[in-house]
Amino acid sequence: MYKTEKYVEKLVHGEPTGFLNPIDVRNLKGKLNKNQYKIYSPTKDSEKVIFYNKKEPDISLYEIETNNSLRHQEILGSLFNLNIDESMFGDIIINDNHYYVFINNLIEDYFISNFNKVGKYNISLKKLNKDYLKDYERSYEEIELIVTSLRIDTVISRIIHTNRDSIKDKIKDKDIYLNHELLKRTDYKLKEDDIFSIRKYGKYKFIKVTNTTKKDNFVILIKKYN
C-alpha cells in the first residue's frame, strides 16, 4: 500500500498522482473522501486515469508514426524498456492502424529523445492536441462461450482452445494477468468486469453469465479488446 500513501501525499500537496491503473484507483478511492479529488480521464473510457484536486494534470498525446503494424504489447514493452514508471504514461490506443500514447509532461523531453523504436521497427512521434481523442471509445469484439465453470483456467482454455494443464504452464511462464496483476491461481472464479490478458492472445473483459444450459453449463459473454 506504499504507492497509495504516496498518492495521498501528492494530493495533499496539490499535486496530481500520475496515471493510475484500476487497482491503484480502487485502493486510492478507499483512502479518500469524494470531495478530496477529481478524476482526469483523457478519453471517455480511459483505463488509466489521474487523480487531482486543483490544477488539471499536465499531459501530452503523441501519435506513433510507422509504416509497420504494431501490437499493443510491443508498444508497452518498448515503453518499459525506457525504464519509465507506468504512472508516467496512460492508455496505449490503437485505432484504424493509428497508434497513440498519453504521457506525463514530466518525462516529455526524455520520451521524445529516446522513444524511437517499437520492437525492431523505427518510429517517429507526432504531438497532437491532448483532447484529440476526447470522444474516443474503445471497440470490442463480443464473444459468447459455453463453459462448465467460471474458473479462469476453464474460460481461458476455451478461448485459446487448449487444455487446462497448458494454462498452468502459462501461469508459470507469467503469461496471464488478471486485473493488472500476474495470475497465480488457476481456480479463481471470474466476476463481472474482471479484466484478464493472455500473452499473444490479447486482452479480455468478463461481462456476465447470460444463461445456463440444460446440462448446467454457463453461457457467458466476454469482450475482447480490439
Strand and helix order:
HEHEEEHEEHEEEEHHEEEEE
* Number of structurally distinct domains: 2
Tell me the total number of β-strands: 15
- What percentage of the residues does DSSP assign to strands (E)? 25-35%
What is the molecular shape?
Answer: globular
CATH superfamily annotation of the largest domain: RRM (RNA recognition motif) domain
Arrangement of strands in the largest sheet: 10-15-14-13-11-12
| Head-to-tail CA distance between termini | 32 Å
Average pLDDT works out at: 93
Which class best fits the helix and strand makeup? alpha+beta
Helix content class: 10-25%
- Main beta sheet: strand number and arrangement? 6 strands, antiparallel
In the CATH classification, which architecture of the largest domain applies?
2-Layer Sandwich
Total number of helical segments?
A: 6
In CATH, what is the class of the largest domain? Alpha Beta
Q: Spans of 5+ residues with little confidence (pLDDT < 50)?
A: none
Rg (C-alpha, Å): 19 Å
CATH topology of the largest domain: Alpha-Beta Plaits
Written description of the protein model:
There is one protein chain. The chain is α+β, with helices and mostly antiparallel strands and 226 residues long. The chain has 2 domains: 1-137, RRM (RNA recognition motif) domain (Alpha-Beta Plaits); 140-225, Structural Genomics Hypothetical 15.5 Kd Protein In mrcA-pckA Intergenic Region, Chain A, CATH 3.10.290. It contains 6 helices and 15 strands. A hairpin with a 2-residue loop joins strand 11 (176-178) and strand 12 (181-182). Helix 5 (152-159) crosses helix 6. The longest helix is centred in the first third of the chain and has 11 residues, at 2-12. The radius of gyration is 19 Å and the shape is globular.
